[in-house]
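Review form for a predicted model. The reviewer records the input and the model, then writes brief findings.
Reviewer: anonymous (R2)
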Amino acid sequence: MDESFSILELPPQLCKKSKGETVEVKHFVFEDLLDSQEKLICRHAEIDENFSTYLYLLEKKRDSFFSREEEKPLGCYLGYRAGVLYTFEDFNFKINSFDEFTLLSEAVEVTTGTSFFFELCNLCQLPHELSGEIELLLSIYSRKVKRIPPLTYFDQIADENREVLKMAVKGNPRAVEKLEREVGEEEAKRLIKEFKTRPEELFDTCILSSEGSYSVVGIVTALGTEEVEGRQLMVVDLFAEEFELRVLSPHVEPVKEGERVALSGKMFAVAMV
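Model under review:
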């Protein structure tokens, strides 16, 4: 899985040509997936002070004493070490097999109690077990960031039922029932339909996530650029709901601080180690 490269329109060959350290991945989440002849390794290389690559490989010993070990590439990740710093606990990793390799994790942000989904790029640098709180640098990688007009109408009903509406949009039956009790069946249908199709018309800012994919409407607080191997990326800092977010994208429509933007993307994290 090389999504971090494809989203940002960067060549995945960056992983293969980078030279760096090779480490064995010790984290316990992989133990039950490995047999006695296998081990999971990671080749980590720094591109510059902000970007690093993490190439995960499954290494398997051959039966012959004279033959070399086999290596199967599982996935390559581009980590960004200039994301927004948050502290997390209660990590839940989603990998079930090496055939569908993923570093997707769900964890709880300690200040707000909000769950985030992200690919933890440098899991290979973490210890066998995660105990207590861990600081992560979060970023959203998005193919395109669109400028959108200011909100013209404040929907008080939607705002008062924001959290249950977000769960109802994901298909949670209990949330749908609760929303219907609060606002009535017809109003609940309207809110769910509009949130699915036009969230920017319901809320000034909003964050909707589903297993690592994010849809965000936010207000721009700062703009900048990064360069990776001669390719320029835009950096958009924004405020959405109660969170500060940093977005990397190869395509950003002309926008100024204080204006609203909408985007879809994937969240990636780098642990502070």
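Findings: The chain has a mean pLDDT of 90.
Further findings: The longest strand covers residues 213-228.
Recommendation: see findings above.
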